[in-house]
Specification:
The complex is a heterodimer of chains A (568) and B (352). Chain A is mainly alpha-helical and 568 residues long. Helix content of chain A is 65%, strand content 1%. Chain B is α+β, with helices and mostly antiparallel strands. In chain B, the strands form 4 sheets. Chain B has a 5-stranded mixed β-sheet with strand order 3-2-1-5-8. Chain B has a 5-stranded mixed β-sheet with strand order 4-10-9-6-7. Chain B has a 5-stranded mixed β-sheet with strand order 13-19-18-15-16, with no helix packed on it. In chain B, β2 and β3 form a beta hairpin. Classes of the chains: A mainly alpha (568), B alpha+beta (352). At the A-B interface, α4, α8, α9, α10 and α11 of A face α2, α3, β7 and β9 of B.
Chain lengths: 568, 352
Amino acid sequence: MATTTLEPRAAGYRRSWVLDWLTTVDHKKIGILYIVNSFLFFFAAGILALVIRAELAVPGMQFVDQDTYNQAFTMHGTIMIFLFVVPVLAGFGNYIVPLMIGAPDMAFPRINALSFWLLPLGGILIFSGYLFGGAAAEGWTAYTPLSGPDYGSTPGTDLWIIGLTLVGTASILGAVNFIATIFKMRAPGMTLFRMPIFVWTVLVTATLILLATPVLTAGLIALFIDRNYGGSFFDPTVGGNPILWQHIFWFFGHPEVYIVILPAMGVVSEVLPVFSRKPLFGYKAFVFATVGIGLLSFSVWAHHMFTTGAVFLPFFAFMTALIAIPTGIKMFNWLATMWRGKLMLTTPMLFSLGFLSMFLIGGISGVMLASPPIDFHVQDTYFVVAHLHYVFFGGSVFGVFAASYYWFPKMFGRKLNEPLGKVHFWLHFIGFNLAFFPMHQLGLSGMPRRIGDYSPDAGWTILNLISTAGAFLIAISILPFLINVIATFINGEPAGDDPWEGNTLEWATSSPPPPHNFDRLPPIHSERPLFFLTHGHGHAAERPEDLEEEPIGESKSGDAERRPEDLV
Amino acid sequence: MQPTAARSRSRTKLRVGVPLLVLALAASGCLLPPDPVTEAGQDVFNLYLVVLALAAIVFIGVEGFILYAIFRYRRQPGDDVLPEQHHGNNTIEVIWTIIPTVIVLILFTVSVITLGEVEGRSEDPGVTIEVDGFQWQWTFSYPEGGTTTGTIGSPPTLVVPVNEPVRLVLNSLDVNHAFYVPQFLIKRDLIPVGENGEPNELEFTITEEGTYAGQCAEFCGTAHADMTFVVDAVSREIYDEYAAALASGSPPPATGGGDCELTIEITANNTQFDIDEFEVPADTAFCIAFENQEAVPHNVSILEGGEHLFTGEFLNQPGNIIYEVPALAAGEYTFVCDAHVQAMNGTVTVTP
């Protein structure tokens, strides 16, 4: 019988690193692609924000004309939400979730790659409106009939619809992948109630995406039919209803707010315990609060439509106010986590504390907006702009930076420079409040959103000027961050496997992790397996149920040191 | 207790207390809507004060705790002893589920009470006016039969009587708009509803005479920012006079201008202005009382170089109008009639 000598496969097959990144199905590389791609769109949309703020600094149209201004705020909102905040958090989820649950990869690695690559494609399509007579200019909400065939007739709006359909499809595929991964790929011993809170928030987020995004996609296709094939879904002159679009958009749009904030809450819930050196207070309460927010988020959409006269106000006011309860529970649990802790004010901790303070303001102004009479006054004014930036920026983006500083050592094996990180935080924090706090007063004084010009008699000039200064300070604060990232790549402090004395499994492997993630896994007895490993049973005994349960990993294979092939 | 520790603790109190005090002062000094001039606006304003007080309590409590924890529970260098590992406490969880529940129930209850007052409709409003919004202007149609609309640079004026309910029927002729006067503390959308839909209505009772600036609040395309209007709240007699004159087609008597600190009078006849220069102080809004004495279209606009700083509404027939001109910086400007720039012009001197 003839024998054949096989070459070792991996060593015999070399390809360029470019091709490697383009064709990768490794969740860690895809996660990094997500994050890098999202930050590129963040910078593009940030430049548009500076255009908006420069134009609003003083009365009169100085830099751009009205159409360019309208395109700028439309693209700013669309890109920031759909191509920065959502995907950057999905990127961290992609990188961290499999590591946190002790899995070797996502459940569907190739679908994972597809859902990433749809994003830059969709983003480029949305931006390419600028090449065909102007980008979409109807606001990120694209209300009909303004976005319909009779008024918003530039190709930019069609490209916006097609691009968003692709981005939405990417989200849906990603959500399916996360749900399958979290339910099917957990390491033995990692029961649902031992999952890190970040994994819980990603699970609830993925469920929201799965239920909400198809509604938007359907609405976008209906709008496309109206615009191009004589449809009349939203055209009142032939029996359609423009309010229907608002219902569809916000049925997606309000869960979208939680899609954006829940993973950031998850990040903060990982960072706060590590740097308070205590477990998260009320783990199960936190999980139930997260699920509660997810459920309630589908019953509040019409609070964006209080002034349309087309919705039943008390019901939506009540449901919206209810969301404050699980959110309040989370806030109290975060505070109790710090209570009698030993706080270390590292950069990720600073951004997490910034998240708590800023999201608090966004939450309070959100409850104010839930009151219909108050909403009658401030709806569609700068008060709403202030509120949504305190949630999206003060909340989610602070969470994104906390995650960046926290997990950078795991991803690249080097720690970002702490003093530069603190400079970044303080410039960012001050700039943010300068830019957005005055908008509360502007809105209360009656300045509508989405205007490029205002009267010098309105008394809005000084606050607008302060806000513009703050926006440019935010832009400046990004410089120390970029310098920090570059300098760390060149000559950063080696991080080691576990630079922060972390709680969760991603810190149990090398930095960066090997392609298969884990050579061995520690036993999993709680939501803090690594803390358990470092500090032993003495502390875990405070939760007696942890000791009574037989760890599944050991009972199944009889070997606590699981190898990746066990998972196949 | 060691003196240094005591000092550092009192310094800590100072560090926490002073920013909190500043925040509280800042919050009490501003963050208020304009003084309301309608009955419903007063209800909204009162509700807002209650909600702002609740918000301030929550803000100071939570933010205060965050700052307290940052200063009180810092890890000292070299301290490797773990703090006590609290995992939670169900009693405490129940308590802080109840706290936000009580707050939002209070908020919801007072909101619904106010909502009932704000949305209340009178059986028989004093006036019902049809408001048509379109890109990017307004038309106001009065029950007496008159109609008025604006032009670019010259927003239309809605004249209404004070101290009686005014009902607006809000129609859109194209895309969504919103009727918003900040001092009313209320707005309502104009939605194109087609043949079978019911247009929105907005009802208010203005309690103070005066002119109030308003503008479209729902984004409506290119010139959304320019879609402004003015509400002129006058006595019933002046309203009747105005509405009757408007309905009969004769030029309406000048209204508004009640707030003008300075009024310049200009008259046009024989394609000439009666003056060729006037002087106003810098950074002060002023009014021009313009009278057209002939059946030739005239207006008054103010230019810097070739650029319009202010464009007055045309009077096509003999009549009066009061222009409210925004504040100008010190310098020399020209005023013209846009239809007869060569023949009708003069100099505006704005003194510092």
